[in-house]
From TrEMBL:
This is DNA repair protein RecO. InterPro entries: ARFGAP/RecO, DNA_rep/recomb_RecO_N, NA-bd_OB-fold, RecO, RecO_C. It comes from the Bacteria. The keyword DNA damage applies. Keywords: DNA damage, DNA recombination, DNA repair. Pfam families: RecO_C (PF02565), RecO_N (PF11967). The gene is recO. Involved in DNA repair and RecF pathway recombination. Residues 5-75 form the DNA replication/recombination mediator RecO N-terminal domain. Belongs to the RecO family.
Length: 237
């Protein structure tokens, strides 16, 4: 039997009349699939606890792809997300479920996830927190990119120049400025520091992370992104 460890529920779905199947992101074991027997029962003490964005202590047992929940308790109140922050939180959960392998430890990424949720709860603009987490996720996946040097010459990036992103190579100085793969040196320095002080830097960071994450996410649309777009359309009608 595993010991108690810190976790977050990424997603849950009903199983039988009273149980749940949980997709959990844990501090020491990464993503784990867990059967929570009886968790949906009327008298279950877990009925309100096994929700996304609630910090949990959990213990499970078993082998194979599906474990069995033995103990769970909330460490505190759920991180308060609403509006765009809530949809952004669902997005983080979805990309973790899609990209992170099961039973693979991502200790640093767990803390990056907690940091991202905290930032989403504290700031009205979710974009910087999302970009920082996506970059942290890419780092954890071993997607190493040098934002500080030109891949062609090895020289330090000049914030006034333009660079083209080449997959599996990096950023190469270029005169092309209108391409989707073109980034200014200022954009690259912001990506390196993960500090985005202008709207243009945030847009460039979003463009880069979408390019870099595409091979991991595949062609299947993200449900969280579709829900956010639907909400945006309704709010403007």
């Amino acid at each position: 039997m595993e010991g108690l460890q810190r976790c977050f529920v990424l997603h849950s779905r009903p199983y039988s009349e009273t149980s749940l199947i949980l997709d959990v992101f844990s501090e020491n074991h990464g993503r784990v699939s867990i059967m929570a027997k009886g968790a949906r029962g009327k008298r279950s003490p877990l009925k309100g606890a096994l929700q996304p964005f609630t910090p949990l202590l959990m213990k499970w047992s078993g082998r194979g792809e599906m474990r069995t929940l033995r103990q769970a308790e909330a460490m505190g109140l759920a991180i308060p997300l609403s509006g765009n922050a809530l949809f952004s939180g669902f997005y983080l959960n979805e990309i973790l479920s899609r990209v992170v392998e099961q039973e693979t430890g991502y200790h640093q990424l767990f803390y990056d996830y907690v940091t991202a949720l905290t930032e989403l709860a504290q700031h009205s603009n979710p974009e910087p927190a999302l970009r920082r987490f996506e970059l942290a996720l890419l780092d954890s996946l071993g997607y190493g990119v040098d934002f500080l040097h030109c891949a062609g010459s090895g020289e330090s990036v000049d914030e006034s120049m333009t660079y083209i992103f080449r997959e599996q190579q990096g950023f190469v100085a270029s005169l092309m400025k209108s391409s989707n793969l073109a980034f200014t040196g200022s954009d690259l320095l912001a990506l390196a520091s993960r500090q985005f002080t202008t709207r243009e830097q945030l847009k460039a960071a979003k463009r880069f992370t979408r390019l870099a994450l595409k091979p991991y996410l595949g062609s299947k649309p993200l449900k969280s992104r579709e829900l956010f777009l639907l909400r945006t359309r309704k709010s403007t009608q």
